[in-house]
Amino acid sequence: MPNYNFNFRFFAHTTDVAEYIHKRREDEEEGETQLNQIKERKLRERAKLEEEFRTAKAERDKINPNLLEEQLEIAEYTADRTGVGYPVPQEGREP
Q: Which UniProt keywords apply (predicted)?
């Protein structure tokens, strides 16, 4: 004669385990969904900031398109006058 009590306990235990596993999978999927949403939001924010940076840089370049050339000329002039910025070869000495 089969032991129905044992079979019922085993069935109850396996359903509890199955429910636990199912719940855990749902929680993991929900966590992954939330993580993906956070990643997507950060990517959108970064893209927005990069676009603002490019816009600001374009506006700055519109104001003064020769800005880099002017900065280079100023740096060379300053280095020529002070000797700071790049080594100035001196006679008898190698840089």
A: Coiled coil
